[in-house]
Amino acid sequence: MRLQFNLASLLAFFILVLLLHEAHESAHYFSAWLLCGCPPARDFLVWELCSNCTGEKQFLLASFAGPLATYAFMWWGFSLLRPTTSAWQKTIGFALVTGALPLPRWLAAIDRGGDEISTLRHVFTGAKTYQGVLLGGLIVLLLTVPPVWRAFKAIRNKQRILIILAFLVIPWLLDRLLVEKFLNGKLAAAGVLMSPVYAGMPLLVILWQLFLLIAFALTARKLKYLSEDSTQSF
What we know:
single chain; 234 residues; mainly alpha; two-stranded antiparallel ribbon; 9 helices; 4% strand; globular
């Protein structure tokens, strides 16, 4: 798979990145709703169980739901990157693996944080806290490294090390600037359209979800231009 870079394909890829990020947060939200029977509160990054749901089991399961959604997309991409798949499927597989943002999962594990380790530290308390850190770090590595390695091996460009690094770092930085710093750090923090309007979800979050779905529907086919091979075979 020989990657190529143009505005249309990169914009489509970044929309996918944002959509996968929202899928991660929505997995927390909907699993907590399902487990507790009442919708949790949420913004763009943080969720809380509803006030009458205090069970540790529900919290732990809902905490793992976000990473599981992310890993599901990464391993879907891993499957599409098999040698026997078409160029178009490999292109989508590459986009799913890198678009699921594995880098922040690594960085969070190094910092002994992230959903996986933070949740397991609730299970392994006291003197056993290190077990939660080790197990969480191991889960992150086992579920992220194989897809990223296969995505790297699929690249046929000369500078494939620089390319995979760019796809790991740049989307994460842009996602962080837009979602964490602007949407959550500016708008949500200022209370802009953050009053819950449906099932504990603020209007701003609902509008963001609608925007992402529409934007992805309009740009998804442009992902084919991410690879010369898929463009030629499409």
